[in-house]
Specification:
The chain has one domain. Helix content is about 15%, strand content about 40%. It has a 5-stranded antiparallel β-sheet with strand order 4-3-2-1-5. The longest helix is centred in the first third of the chain and has 9 residues. It is an alpha+beta fold. It has 1 helix and 5 strands, in the order αβββββ. Belongs to the SspH family. InterPro entries: SASP_SspH. Its main location: other. This is Small, acid-soluble spore protein H.
Amino acid sequence: MDAKRVKQIISSPAEIDVTYNGAAVWIDQLNEDGRTATVHLRGPMEERTVVEIHELRED
């Protein structure tokens, strides 16, 4: 995924399915470097993780 698409997903009112290493995640923000994003798993766990945006997949 690229930075432009990450921004579109974050600003979209629609629920867009995104995965990281096969796990469903919410994208919280695109980080200032433009190469990483802060995400958290969908569900009760809200631990946030910084990941490379090229590793995110849109389902």
